[in-house]
């Protein structure tokens, strides 16, 4: 429980920026993350609109012995929920946003809690794009600071490698710029170290030179999974690094707002992007297209439309999930996956996804940060809708069941951005990098003021 001095300090935050305390009318709305299944009850929610406000809140909180959890959208809030937030000021960065583009330098400056959809909208008129993930309303910060897996990934690597510079409000409230040449240790650590090093108030990102991409989805009824899943796995073994795809076995409830090809159906969907000319891309995808999908939307589209290809939910939803990283999948692995989610099963999931890794995603880069690559062949990600606490318990068990069934093929490592529960964070990093990251954190935040969803 918060002590009386804390209560005084919390009340004092009201002088610094928009603040919601328990009992305030706006507290519940302000504390609610994008993932509506997560119940986070911080001691206060601060919504700064300037960097100066961020600094003053962090300084005041630290001086009062409180801690600070930066959160942009709450897409990744699930792991935070498992900690006590009684002495934590949730710093909601949704009020501190903006993008400026330098097309000649191919760099965008992205402020605080800006969403990917706003960045892509700003850079697209210049014929540029960026290594965004599958959802338009994920924030750049939480995604790139945790590595970031995009459909550009197998050609261009994890998104954290695109960071050129960061402005960070560190634990004493001061503003620090970190680049390869300035505060190089912090620059290394923050590129993979998530919210453990400070509140990131601006990121300079190197952009990608694509005005359009060859992208889309292939869709089959789930009855075809016994053909499609092994064919896709076989195809991924030799697919060039120009192509990054995901395979999902998905179940949609019957809902009038869904198109008929989705509503009430169990499906297999392969989607992604191929960074090649049309004829080469068609050649790459030919083995999958030969499986006669019911729907084939692959074709050349404006790069900005890649944000819609994965059909992620357009707004907040309650969801629970589980994840592991898999190595090569043999016949037995495919059979185990189909046993869990193939025809005739009732997995109780919205989807079970295999996201293709490899290519540049798996290659360490000399000038990269704490996460410059993610080893492994596939990221397994299982998600269930969780509109009630009971559904959350059942959904977690269902997601865990698939992850457990695939454990024979899993690796120790994890993808931070896909990790929904509290885990030993050393699993995200190579051994030496883990030790170095903890040293940098200890130097910059010895009192552990910062609270990340995945704590070091
Ligand atoms: C529908 C959906 C689709 C997704 N698709 C992908 C995908 O394709 N690829 C992929 O890699 N991931 C994907 N993710 C996962 C997503 O990238 C992570 O949940 C990511 O952490 C979200 O970042 P956020 O800032 O929006 O979320 P938040 O929950 O706000 O942030 C997560 C953590 O990042 C840190 N953080 C956030 N903002 C800041 C900041 N300004 N300063 C310091 N630390 C900060 C904090 O530690 C915070 O707890 C997806 C998630 C969902 C729900």
Secondary structure elements and their pairing?
Layout lengths: L3 H9 L5 E3 L6 H5 L12 E4 L3 H13 L3 E5 L6 H4 L6 E5 L6 E4 L4 E5 L4 H8 L16 H6 L7 H4 L6 E7 L5 E4 L5 H10 L5 E8 L5 E10 L3 H14 L4 E9 L14 E9 L3 H12 L5 E2 L2 E4 L16 E8 L4 H11 L9 E6 L21 E8 L3 H17 L25 H14 L12
Parallel strand pairs: 2-4, 3-4
Antiparallel strand pairs: 1-2, 5-6, 6-9, 7-8, 7-9, 10-12, 10-13, 10-14, 11-12, 11-16, 15-17, 16-17
Organism: Nocardioides gansuensis
GO molecular function, one term: oxidoreductase activity
Keywords: FAD, Flavoprotein, Oxidoreductase
Main sheet overview: 8 strands, antiparallel
Helix-residue proportion: 25-40%
User: Which sequence of SSEs, written as H and E, runs from N to C?
Assistant: HEHEHEHEEEHHHEEHEEHEEHEEEHEEHH
Total of DSSP H or I helical runs spanning 4+ residues = 13
- Total strands: the figure is 17
Average pLDDT, rounded to a whole number, is 96
Using only C-alpha atoms, the radius of gyration works out to 22 Å
Query: Could you say what the CATH topology of the largest domain is called?
Result: Vanillyl-alcohol Oxidase, Chain A, domain 3
The fraction of residues assigned to DSSP E strands is 15-25%
Judged by helices, strands and strand pairing, the structural class is alpha+beta
Provide the domain count: 3
CATH A-level architecture of the largest domain: 3-Layer(aba) Sandwich
Ligand kinds:
flavin-adenine dinucleotide
CATH class of the largest domain, please? Alpha Beta
End-to-end C-alpha gap: 24 Å
Shape: globular
Q: What low-confidence regions span 5 or more consecutive residues with pLDDT below 50? A: none
């Amino acid at each position: 429980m918060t002590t009386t001095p804390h209560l005084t300090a919390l009340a004092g935050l009201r002088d610094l920026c928009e603040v919601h305390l328990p009992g305030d009318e706006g507290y519940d709305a302000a504390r609610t993350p994008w993932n509506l299944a997560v119940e986070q009850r911080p001691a206060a929610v601060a919504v700064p609109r300037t960097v100066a406000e961020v600094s003053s809140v962090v300084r005041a909180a630290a001086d009062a012995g409180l801690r600070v959890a930066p959160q942009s959208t709450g897409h990744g809030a699930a792991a935070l929920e498992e900690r006590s937030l009684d002495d934590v000021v949730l710093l909601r960065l949704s009020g501190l946003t903006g993008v400026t583009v330098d097309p000649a330098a191919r760099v965008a400056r992205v402020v605080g809690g800006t969403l990917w959809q706003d960045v892509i909208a700003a850079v697209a008129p210049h014929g540029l794009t960026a290594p965004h993930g599958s959802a338009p309303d994920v924030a750049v910060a939480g995604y790139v600071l945790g590595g970031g897996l995009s459909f550009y990934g197998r050609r261009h690597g994890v998104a954290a490698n695109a960071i050129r510079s960061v402005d960070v409000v560190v634990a004493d409230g001061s503003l620090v710029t970190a680049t390869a040449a300035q505060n190089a240790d912090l620059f290394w650590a923050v590129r993979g170290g998530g919210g453990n090093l400070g509140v990131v108030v601006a990121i300079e990102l190197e952009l990608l030179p694509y005005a359009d991409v060859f992208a889309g989805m292939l869709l089959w009824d789930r009855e075809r999974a016994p053909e499609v899943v092994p064919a896709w796995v076989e195809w991924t073994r030799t697919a060039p690094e120009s192509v990054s795809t995901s395979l999902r076995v998905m179940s949609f409830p019957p809902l009038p707002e869904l198109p008929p090809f989705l509503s009430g159906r169990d499906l297999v969907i392969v989607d992604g992007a191929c960074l090649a000319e049309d004829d080469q891309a068609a050649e790459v995808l030919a083995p999958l297209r030969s499986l006669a999908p019911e729907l084939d939307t692959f074709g050349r589209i404006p790069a900005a439309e890649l944000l819609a290809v994965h059909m992620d939910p357009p707004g907040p939803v309650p969801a629970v999930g589980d994840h592991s990283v898999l190595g090569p999948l043999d016949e037995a692995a495919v059979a185990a996956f189909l046993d869990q989610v193939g025809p005739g099963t009732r997995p109780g999931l919205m989807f079970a996804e295999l996201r293709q890794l490899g290519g540049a995603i798996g290659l360490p880069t000399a000038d990269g940060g704490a996460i410059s690559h993610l080893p492994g062949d596939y990221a397994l990600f299982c998600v269930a809708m969780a509109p009630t606490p009971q559904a959350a318990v059942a959904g977690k068990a269902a997601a865990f069941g698939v992850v457990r069934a695939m454990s024979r093929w899993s690796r120790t490592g994890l993808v931070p951005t896909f990790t929904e529960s509290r885990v030993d964070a050393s699993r995200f990093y190579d051994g030496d990098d883990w030790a170095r990251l903890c040293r940098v954190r200890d130097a910059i935040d010895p009192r552990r003021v910062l609270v990340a969803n995945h704590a070091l």
